[in-house]
Write a structure and sequence with these properties.
By secondary structure, this protein is of the alpha/beta class. It contains 11 helices and 11 strands. A 3-stranded parallel beta sheet has the order 1-2-3. A two-stranded antiparallel ribbon has the order 4-5. Helix 1 packs across helix 10. The two termini are about 40 Å apart. The structure holds glutamic acid (GLU). The site of glutamic acid has 7 residues, from loops.
């Protein structure tokens, strides 16, 4: 495994409170970075304007600092050096323009209902468990021509004028499998064209989609190792396709298996209290949560309290469980102080 890297990031979305699963994934990221002597930046992924709140932003910083994590100031950023996506629209717009000039993207007016109807008309049923059906490429033929519309904005205007509909942008994805070596999940090869089809890089309101913002920021921030939850594993081949379309080098990826409830689902209220802020408010010491995260990351044989900084020297990614972790009674009893 490539042991060294230069920079990674913590990238919370301020759309809800951070829970135990986030704490564990962020701690693993932090231990890896501090051990490697790499830089670790904070990036607030607040592009979901309808759901991101200032309170959740503040609480995410507070929760992570309380757990003992620190981050490096990103050059040029004020205050604590945090990178905030809602202030970086110019970078996403520039990448979109570069993609248009390379003929790598096209404008699309298909709503979810349009896509569902097109899929229903075709022979291919959506795969079981798929979040959304594969985009059948209805707009791939070109609603706007580059010869007539030099810029993304000109193309959007032309399409809106012709159709009266809002526009999003989709990446033309290659027909073959996209392979990458994940430091935890191993070799992956996923055919994005079959899986998702040409996926959107923007939303109809013009906001950059997660895939675009993530790739543009990771590239510009010099991130050469991405560590995140394995719920994002299906996004990674899409991001690799986008790196390639932009002519950029993808980082290394390490997808940490999630913490889940006994029912196999992502952590939620019905699994009991798992929000970091609530443990903090209840007087549970941060070292107890960190100890739990270290134990559940395979770094300690038994549960004990430990400071985040105390584990840096001995952290070993090879010991991280390769399966998802089911939160059970033992975890809850320990976290409750038992
Ligand atoms: N903001 C995303 C999340 O909280 C993480 C994105 C990433 O690490 O690429 O799920």
């Amino acid at each position: 495994m490539p042991a060294s890297f230069q920079a990674t990031r913590l990238a919370p979305s301020p759309t809800g409170a951070l829970h135990l699963g986030h704490a564990r994934t962020f701690l693993v990221t932090w231990w890896l970075a501090r051990q490697a002597g790499a830089r670790i930046f904070m990036r607030m992924e607040d592009l979901d304007a309808g759901r991101a709140t200032a309170e959740a932003v503040r609480q995410a910083y507070d929760d992570l600092r309380w757990l003992g994590m620190t981050w490096d100031a990103y050059p040029g950023e004020a205050a604590g050096g945090e990178v905030v996506q809602s202030r970086r629209g110019h970078l996403y717009a520039a990448a979109l323009q570069a993609l248009w000039e390379r003929d790598a993207i096209y404008p699309c007016i298909c709503t979810r209902a349009d896509i569902a109807a097109a899929v229903a008309r075709s022979a291919s049923a959506p795969h079981e468990g798929e979040a959304s059906p594969r985009y059948p490429g209805s707009c791939a033929g070109g609603l706007a021509r580059r010869a007539e519309c030099a810029t993304v904005q000109a193309a959007e205007r032309a399409v809106r004028k012709r159709t009266g509909r809002a526009v999003c942008w989709r990446l033309r994805v290659p027909g073959e499998a996209i392979a990458f070596d994940d430091l935890i999940a191993g070799r992956q090869a996923i055919n994005v064209a079959e899986d998702a089809g040409d996926f959107p890089l923007t939303r109809f309101d013009g906001t950059p989609a997660y895939q675009l913002a993530c790739v543009v920021d990771d590239h510009h921030m010099g991130i050469d190792r991405v560590v995140r939850g394995d719920d994002l594993l299906p996004s990674t081949p899409r991001q690799v396709a986008l790196y390639r379309a932009l002519g950029w080098e993808p980082p290394q990826f390490a997808h940490v298996p999630l913490v889940i409830g006994a029912d196999g689902k992502r952590l939620a209220k019905r699994h009991g209290e798992s929000r970091i802020a609530q443990f903090r408010a209840a007087g549970v010491p941060a070292e107890r949560i960190v100890g739990w995260a270290a134990w559940r990351s395979g770094q300690m044989d038994s549960l004990r309290e430990i400071g985040a900084a105390d584990l840096v020297g001995g952290f070993d990614l090879a010991k991280l469980p390769r399966e998802r972790v089911v939160l059970g009674e033992r975890d809850m009893a320990w976290l409750a102080g038992g």
